[in-house]
User: Fold this.
Amino acid sequence: AIAVSMPVTADETQSTAPEANVGGTATWSAEVDSTVSGITLDATQLAIVAEVNQYFNDITDLKGSFLQTDPESGQSRGLFLIQKPGRFRFDYASPSTLVVLSDGEYLSFEEEGNPPDRYPLESTPFGVLFKDKVDLAQSAKIVELFSGADLVTITLEDRSDESNGRIKLYFAWI
Assistant:
């Protein structure tokens, strides 16, 4: 399940993969720079990253609801639809009129009464997560990985260090 800005909770309707929650930011570079490194992953952590990659690679269509928490602890809810590669829609519930869309090439933030803000999809975290072949270790800098009995979190940053964007993925591990 995916949403924009901060860590999110979501219900999924796909039964072949574990539940996941995602948050992010709209400025991101998916360029790979081998001189930029995150944390050093051990064999167990590499196996976890491989499972997370497989989760995203197995998604073709996904829909559900989300709960988004912003930095000031405000919350927004809504529904999302995803069709890989790269196509998705997040409809925020009232009173918000925000809709976040991607046609596979551009990400658009559209709100009633305002002109849309458009970004190339590949310059956002969504470009990394919703392409045909996801490989987080190659497409992003992994700066934190936590694995507990039933929870895995992975924090990613832009590999280019041109933005301070960070996305944290939450997975209920079953």
